[in-house]
Each structure stands twice: as structure tokens, then as C-alpha cells.
Amino acid sequence: MMLEYVNEKEDYDAFADKLKVLLSELLDAAGIKYHSIVARTKESESLYQKVLRQPNKYQSLRDVHDLTGIRIVTYFHDDVREAARIIENEFSIDRDQSVDKSTLLDTTEFGYLSVHFVAALSEQRLALSEYGRFKEHTAEIQIRSILQHAWAEIEHDLGYKNPNSVPAEVRRSFSRVAGLLEIADQEFVNIKKQLKQFEDETVQQILSDPHQVRITSDNLNYFIDHSSVINALDKQLVTSQMMLDSDQQLINELIRMFHYVDIRNYGELIEAVSVHSPLALKCAQVMPNPFLPRQGIGIAYICMAVTIAGNDPHRIDYFFRRFYPELRNVGEIIKQVQPLTEEMIQEKNID
Q1: Looking at residues 243-270, what average pLDDT do you find?
Q2: CB of 74 within 8 A of CB of 83?
Q3: Continuous H helices in the chain
Q4: Could you tell me which of 281, 305, 170 has the C-alpha nearest to residue 232?
Q5: Domain boundary, last residue among 153, 188, 207
Q6: Domain span at residue 330?
Q7: Is the pTM of this model over 0.85?
């Protein structure tokens, strides 16, 4: 058996790599965010020790179900269930060898919580040429939350294998920590749900009555994510393929710009975008931007256009010095930008 494994080790390594990529694609497609997916193939020495402990149980490599191991670590424990559902749908599961560790604990107990599957590729996937060679392969797929993972890693590092072999006070300490982690796991899920509810309610308020929703650093990011108008403006301004998510630095700077140009609520912002987008686009042609290409960058140009349209030299000068302090020859740049206002006025009169 050992010689056979050494000869087939490369196949098992390839199987582990394939599974990691496949699981990443499946979780990404389902919108499940995860901390990590780790794939490993059992070392020969580890297999030898495993067989040595139970020689009658393992007669061939097909009897060893964890030669390939995958560990999926999610951020939230409710995503463990979602990931498990995907694996059950996409793989052929050996129910006799699979286990949900949480079901093994009594209602009064706390401890290791994880879902373990022994899985093989489905018949549909094996029919594809890239997977056909792995027909005889199985893998142990573990799914746990990041807090469950922390518990398991620390437990392993401390060598806490047999609870009966340690003093009662130590067992009580482990139980308390496990209980706290379980509570923390649930609270993080609750926080995630509360944030999602806040996001949905905020977006709905902006859509239904934008003039009644004051712009804050808390809700601006949600508006940028969901506004088709802002997204369209960003795409016109940023020609590169890379568009980063908005970050707190940009959000804070936009809030300061809003105060300067006196845009207080989303109704006023939407009106400013409608009126000043052409000028903002023209400004982008002659002005460098101090920020990376992030979602919401178009709003900075809208604030610039609002300032320029006001045609107040002092306010224009202050705007550029305040928000573009690294620029040199600001006066020359302003001279390039100011004629755009007259051009826009002329175009408006022609229309």
C-alpha cells in the first residue's frame, strides 16, 4: 500500500489542487466570503502511522478517506451551513463517513464544532475530461468558522486530546472558552444581519425620499454601492479596468467636500449629479485626481464642478488648495478649468 501511495502521490497532489480551485469557484459563485481554503495531501509517514494503528481497517488506499484533505474556514458560522449545502449538492457524499461535529455534543456541552464530509466528485463532473482521472479519489472536506478554527488550532497546540486525562478545573476552563467562542460566533452573525438590515433600510430611504436622508459617512458607502447613476459616472471617468471599492479615506474626504459645496442630503447630491455631470467629465480630462480609481470617485469631480460653476475665484482657489494640496501652479490649472464653465453655459444656451 505504501509503495502504491508513493507512486500515486502526484495524482493525489493534483486532486487536492483541483478541489481547492473548484471549491473556490463554487463558493465565490454563491457569494460566500471565506477566510481561507487549504488543501493538503497526507504525508507518507502520516499514512504509515495511520495504517499501523489500525492494520485491519485499511486494506487498500481506497479505505483511507483523508489522503486528500480540504479545510474551508468561513468568517461566520451561518456560512458553514451554506458551504455545506453547496458541497452536498455538488459532490457525492459518503454519509457513513461524514459527520457534523456539533450534533455530537450534548445540549449542556461546548466544544469543537465543525462539519466533516468524505466526498468524491459527482458523476456529472467526472464526465468532464479534466476530472475523469480522479474517479477513485475521495477527500475529507472540513468546514468551520474562523472562531471554531481558532478553538481547534489552540486545542491541538495544547495537546488537549482526551478530556478525562486532565484535571476537572482545566476541563471547566476549556468548556468556558468554548462557550464564549460559540456566543461570539452567534453575535457576529447577529451583527452581520443588523448591518445588512441597516443597509437595506438606508438604500430604501434614499430611493423613496432622498431629500429627507442626510448624507453621513455611515450611509454614503451604501449609496455609492447601489447607485446606478454614480456607478455610470465612475465608469466614464475611470478608463482602466481596475476599479477598487470605496474606502474610508475617500468617504471622509467626500464628506468634507459636501460640507464645502453645501450638499447636505441625497436629493441635493442627485440633483448636482444631474446638472453638473458634463462639467465634471470635462474637469476629469484636465485635472489629475488625488485618489486611486475607487467607486464613488465621480462624486469628487461633481463637487469640483459645483465649485467651478459657482464662478467665485476665491472659493475655487480654496477648493483646489484644500483638496488638491499637492498640486503646483494651482493658478494655471484654474485658468484651464474655468473656461469650461463658460463652455457649458454656451452649450446650455444653444440647447
Answers
A1: 90
A2: yes
A3: 2-29, 44-53, 77-90, 123-126, 146-157, 168-208, 217-226, 228-237, 248-261, 266-286, 297-309, 313-323, 330-350
A4: 281
A5: 207
A6: 209-346
A7: no
